[in-house]
């Protein structure tokens, strides 16, 4: 197995490693890579941006899965209180949970952050009356 790591896609006996390499290969095979070389480059850039994002947030998911003292489970991302980054993270977590409701299972810190932010009276009021949008 190449790189001794999953995932791997086998095509005509050739093992193709790495998730984004596999995604790009399949996109080219099925016509989803972009309609021109320039568009393909833009799609690849967006894919790389997503990969960079996942590399940045991964440590937070790992940290949230570890045992934490109770006082850490009831806080915002910075000690001074609610900030825009709490709102941004919670909004993103809501999107992820819309795709997969079990996203936060086992991630107590992130789950508690989401709950705490959504309990802010003004946010709770807005969420209750806002239009529901499909992701």
From TrEMBL:
Transmembrane annotation, as ranges: none
Entry keyword set: Transferase
Keyword Transferase assigned: yes
Enzyme category, top tier: transferase
Protein name as annotated: glutathione transferase
Boundaries of every GST C-terminal domain copy: 1-135
Domain GST N-terminal: 1-34
Species this protein is from: Diploscapter pachys
EC number(s) given by UniProt: 2.5.1.18
